[in-house]
Amino acid sequence: MIQVVPEMQARGYHHGDLRTALIEAGLALLEREGPGGVSLRAVARQVGVSQAAPYAHFHGKRELMSAIATVGFSRLRDLIAPLASDPARSLGELGLAYLDFATANPGLYRLMFGSDEHIDMRNEHLSAASRQALDLLAMKAGRKGSDAIRDPGPIAAWSLVHGLVMLLMDEKLPSGLDQSMPAILRLLEPGIAEHIHEGQP
Amino acid sequence: MIQVVPEMQARGYHHGDLRTALIEAGLALLEREGPGGVSLRAVARQVGVSQAAPYAHFHGKRELMSAIATVGFSRLRDLIAPLASDPARSLGELGLAYLDFATANPGLYRLMFGSDEHIDMRNEHLSAASRQALDLLAMKAGRKGSDAIRDPGPIAAWSLVHGLVMLLMDEKLPSGLDQSMPAILRLLEPGIAEHIHEGQP
DNA sequence: GCGGCGTTCTTAACAGTGTCAAGATTATGA
DNA sequence: TCATAATCTTGACACTGTTAAGAACGCCGC
User: Fold this and answer.
1) Is A24 exposed, middle or buried (0-12, 13-18, 19+ CB in 10 A)?
2) Is the pLDDT at B8 greater than 50, yes or no?
3) Does any strand D atom come closer than 7 Å to the Cβ of B53?
4) In the prediction, which pLDDT does A201 show?
5) Is B197 a residue whose pLDDT tops 90?
6) φ/ψ of residue B65, rounded to 5
7) Does at least one atom of strand C sit less than 7 Å from the CB of A13?
8) Nearest nucleotide (C1') to alpha carbon of A57
9) Nucleotide D9: closest residue by CA–C1'
């Protein structure tokens, strides 16, 4: 009579959906401690599973971190997609949204855009998710019709916002600059406009 | 008759100048493996001393890394001091010199300007050396006579070059951009000039 | 229903890390 | 010269990522 449906958290030897549970626990730990503070054993402990259990779902720590970063790139894509496709939104607005994402998820941002010691960019899912998100940015910043990624414009725009994010997260800049952000991001626009004018006679 | 002068490398129980030997070995290891690849035990091994010997000269790994970063800031200061004090040199030239330093010492740059997980910015020598170097940059980029570090100009300039350095080191940008660097760094100048014009009626 | 089989998970171990305590060795200064 | 402080070694502890060997479980074909 009492039908025992296999619920999400099937207690016992088997977990049910350990893979996504590990990713979510990793995401939480990432924001609390930053990358480097994330240990495979701590993630397993959080989920209530033994130290070696994750190896049934990931080849190693790098693969778990890559899966976490993949989630991050998907979130970023979903966040900036409407802004990038709307011609009414300026490049500066896109920069502000990018900045908001980074400051809201500093650990995740560092994992996604930091050195490749923690993630493996040759991972298919990761590189695909990364390209999807970054293409949206390049689309907005690039001179139309040209090989966007080689133009000084988009490179400078990405460098500016990335550097700003990093310096802010690492507390290298004085505090209380929040209302200066739009002005800072707008400083690049005259130069880009000039450069486009030169480039297309 | 045979006078044994206490040479630099006094073999035996005592090393002679273990402190600076550790710093130099750390610098070498840093460029070969990057931060995170530097282990206290590996540095000690390199110098030919036991694992716990460094603790006679440094309170822990963080303090050794902070000493290494202090050397880095001194080098950077010496490198950019002539450029910063010469009014004939443009901001873009200073940016190129900064970029050269970073790409020539990627591990050291990451240690100096990355997150504070490896170094302790409350360390007196480190913060002093850092301020000396950064003040030179702010002097060049800042609107004269104002509180330089709060102006959008210097913040944007530092962010741009820092972001560019990071993206280059982490191989997030396509290769073969070396000759584009001056153009990228110059894109900010029209915006800064405009902003100064607004700010000083 | 049920037995085999592959997946999932546990326990145990190995090498590596930072750090500390106790003790041996050397330099220094009164 | 000899006590004292500085320097260095050995040994240990807790932590990390990773692997091997084996136990518990879900499922598929009979």
Assistant:
1) middle
2) no
3) yes
4) 39
5) no
6) -65, -35
7) yes
8) C8
9) B50
Q: Strand D: which nucleotides have any atom within 7 A of a protein Cβ?
A: 6-12, 15-21, 24-26
Q: Which amino acid is at B129?
A: A
What residue of A is the nearest CA neighbor of B35?
A117
- Cα–Cα distance, A15 to B71 (Å, whole number): 51
Chain A: residue nearest B116 by CA?
Answer: A170
Q: Do B150 and A113 touch (CB under 8 A)?
A: no
User: Which of A89-93, B45-49, B103-107 shows the lowest mean pLDDT across its residues?
Assistant: A89-93
Enter the tokens of residue B139.
Answer: 């002097």
Low-confidence ranges of chain A (pLDDT < 70): 1-13, 142-149, 197-201
Contact B160, B102 (CB under 8 A): no
Nucleotides of C under 7 A from a protein CB: 7-13, 16-22, 25-27
Mean pLDDT of B39-47: 97
**Alpha-carbon torsion B79, A163, A167, B121, what sign?**
negative
Question: Rounded distance, CA B167 to CA B185, Å?
Answer: 14
Euclidean distance between CA atoms A2 and A87, whole angstroms: 58
- Cβ contacts of residue A109 below 8 Å, gap of 6+? A72, A101, A102, A165, A169
**What DSSP letter does each residue of B118-173 carry, written as one string?**
SS-TT-HHHHHHHHHHHHHHHHHHSPTTS-GGGSHHHHHHHHHHHHHHHHHHTT-S
Domains and CATH numbers, chain A: 67-199 (1.10.357.10)
Taking the C-alpha atoms of residue B170 and residue A158, their distance in angstroms, rounded to an integer, is 14
- Indicate if CB(B47) is under 7 A from strand D: no
Candidate from B162, B164, B191 with C-beta closest to A188:
B191
Q: How many CB atoms lie within 10 A of CB A60?
A: 12
Model pLDDT, residue B149: 60
Hey, what are B156's tokens?
């944007």
Q: Which is higher by pLDDT, A200 or B194? A: B194
Residues of B in contact with A161 (CB under 8 A): 159, 163
Distance between CA A185 and CA B37 in Å, rounded? 35
